[in-house]
Amino acid sequence: MALDRLLEKATAAHRKGAIEAAASLYREVLTLDPRNDVACGNLAVIAATRGDLALAEELFRQAVKLRPADAKSHHNLGSLLQQRGRPAEAVAAHQRAVALKSNYHDAYFGLGNALKLEGRLDEALVAYQHVIALRPDHAEAFNNIGVVLQQQRKSDLALTAYMRATELRPTYAEAHFNLGAALQDVGKPEDAAAAYRQVIALRPDIAAAYSNLGTALQELGRHEEALAAYAAAIQRSPDYAEAHYNRGVMLQALNRPVEALAAYRSAIALKPNYIEAINNAGIVLQVLGRPNDAALAHRQVMALNPDHAEACNNLGAALLAQSRFDEALVVLRRALAIKPDYPDACYNMGNAWRELGKLEGAVAAYQKALQLRPDYADAFSQLAYHRWRACDWTDYEASQNRLLDMVRGGAARVPPFYLLSTAASPADQLACARQWIAPLLPPADEVFRHAPSELRPRVRLGYLSGDFHEHATADLTAELFERHDRRRFEVVAYSYGRDDGSPMRRRIECAFDRFVDIAPLSHRDAAARIHQDGIDILVDLKGYTYQARPQIMAHRPAPVQVNYLGYPATMGADFIDYIIVDSFVVPGDQQPFFMERLVHLPGCYQANDTRRHIPATAPSRADCGLPRDAFVFCCFNNSYKITPAFFDIWMRLLNAVRGGVLWLLAPNDLVRCNLRREAERRGVDPDRLVFAGIVPRPEHLSRHRNADLFLDTLPCNAHTTASDASWASLPILTCAGTTFAGRVTGSLLTDLGLPQLTATSLSDYERLAREFASQPQWLLTIRNALAQRRDAGTLFDCARFTRRLEAVYSRMWEGRCGVHARTDVPATQ
């Protein structure tokens, strides 16, 4: 009787919550009766509650031994084993419990939980269904059925279970939370947001509810509300790495890369091996113009997970940005080995082959990317353009039309440079440029502001380019930089291109008052350097050409910003104030198609270097593979400018001019093979096409003497190439188009006083070419005129050109300082 009273006393204390007293009394019972299963079980429960799981397990096992037929003891042991992370043993314990007591719903519930932990989802569902059969109002069982169904990717069925759980218990926060997740899975973010708000109303302390609310709001495009939700999650749980990560994703989507990077770094600080955050940080670093740091981030991901295909691809992109093309190829191959159907890696593989000069490999990689993702706009743009570079005119018209449709539809970004050699109108070019630059714009608070400007004796003039080395732009501008009047201008170069060690690089470095290498700097840091230097007028010589960094200009580092020479079209950006043109390349009525204000130079807009050396001794025709006495048509334009329509004309000219040949620049074997095949298709002996290799510029200029007539192209004319031909006194026949890029040669010829060499239609172009070929004396007259005007005319008078350009710069700066309102008046002569 004393033992019974002691056990009653212990049980009463336990019920009242006097845990210490109850435990002491249960121990007394066990001292008197070591086989007392009730005291043993209850003391086990107390031990588990206190966190002493080892003692609890020992006591539960003792209770099972004492009463092997007691279902509750087996169930309690199973629950304890789950706590200890041993679900397989827990399953056995719960199964024994339900075997002993078939209507034991708590044991079935515990069995379901253990099976779920084991990944035995179908069996777990059966166990939970037993619970529902025994207890139709068991909200937790419905909730857990939902969890299992969601793990089985049956979110639509999970919804029903979660809804039933919340109906049975409206205050069940966990079920509302899971309902929100399932609603997101089935594409109902609005309903998901409502579910998360219900969780927050019930349990304002659950940080995950705020974070998930943020992801639902993000899907709905309610960006500021999403950011507020992530902030609320972080406020409640500052060490919640996933909330920092989600905030970074949102900021990245909003094109706020600096803030996104900070959010990812916070997530990584809390969770150092957070692969998704590290990977996204690398992507943002690439966007910020920090490819070295981006590569380090992606290498970190690969160290954590060598089979992370996305990190391999992203590292490849970062290495491409660092001009480490062979290394990029290795990691991109690794990405495709891990994930053969990865279109982005195929696309970057194409970029790697392109940079390595393997055009055939590039085209094949872009084709593969398109096969994997037929709507892949970037891959299609690259494929179309690089086929044109190879003079592969497969689906030529369809490709051009598709590019233009993409631009006109506004759904995809097309590199604006690729549009220059298409039938795009000035309006198309403007739309394309706007679409291209829009996602590259920095947040408004990262754009530099400028105080009102004042006149000063010397204007600080900056030139921004990646082409201050052996390059067509440098070939035109080197003397301009040298001739700037240092009494009126301080002239600074900002270079983000490679140092090729060439004489041209050394010459340009010496041409400036200061030559600043900003290549290692991010876009923002490069802009900050320019801003700190106090540049008054910043001239962009790159636009949207190869490896351009318009993001620097987008930060508005200078109060006056100018588009000049490198890119013959609008940049479609409000951060460029002016574009320097002439009245031939861009007549005044074209202003509606330019975001920049047109500033017309008198004469030709193009700078020209008169210090280009042409050796006195030229290679012979035989040295160049040309027949000695035949009429030689030539075109040294880039291969992508050659169109089927112009090639048709050229082949008709060869058929009309007996023994004549066409001399073309061939940077690769694909161009040779494709053009020879196209000639044969048009009934012309392929051997009448002669191909010139790439040689040093002086030799290239001297070999022009072996040609009789340079045939220009359209829609994109010769630019520096036309200047080279004119400098070498080689007559050039052009046709004026409707866009800036298609009117450059006409501008040069007009300034040379030879407007008769500019045709106004393709039929006129073909007629004039035939007449020149049949009247060599006429051509000789033009050649002599070119030689005379080269030395005595205005086109190659760089000193005069520099004065004209400086007058324009001065008027721009005066306008900025409020001296006058107009800057489109002609510069002084």
SSE layout:
Elements: H1 2-16, H2 19-32, H3 37-50, H4 53-66, H5 71-83, H6 87-100, H7 105-118, H8 121-134, H9 139-151, H10 155-168, H11 173-185, H12 189-202, H13 207-219, H14 223-236, H15 241-253, H16 257-270, H17 275-287, H18 291-304, H19 309-321, H20 325-338, H21 343-355, H22 359-372, H23 377-389, H24 396-409, H25 416-419, H26 426-437, E1 459-465, H27 472-483, E2 489-495, H28 503-511, E3 514-517, H29 523-532, E4 537-540, H30 550-554, E5 560-563, E6 578-582, E7 597-601, E8 632-635, H31 644-656, E9 661-665, H32 669-681, E10 689-692, H33 697-703, E11 709-711, H34 720-727, E12 732-735, H35 744-751, E13 758-759, H36 762-774, H37 776-792, H38 798-816
Parallel strand pairs: 1-2, 1-4, 2-3, 4-5, 5-6, 6-7, 8-9, 8-11, 9-10, 11-12, 12-13
Helix pairs in contact: 1-2, 2-3, 3-4, 4-5, 5-6, 5-7, 6-7, 7-8, 8-9, 9-10, 9-11, 10-11, 11-12, 11-13, 12-13, 13-14, 13-15, 14-15, 15-16, 15-17, 16-17, 17-18, 17-19, 18-19, 19-20, 19-21, 20-21, 21-22, 22-23, 23-24, 27-28, 31-36
Key structural traits:
6-stranded parallel sheet, Serine Threonine Protein Phosphatase 5, Tetratricopeptide repeat, 829 residues, elongated, alpha/beta
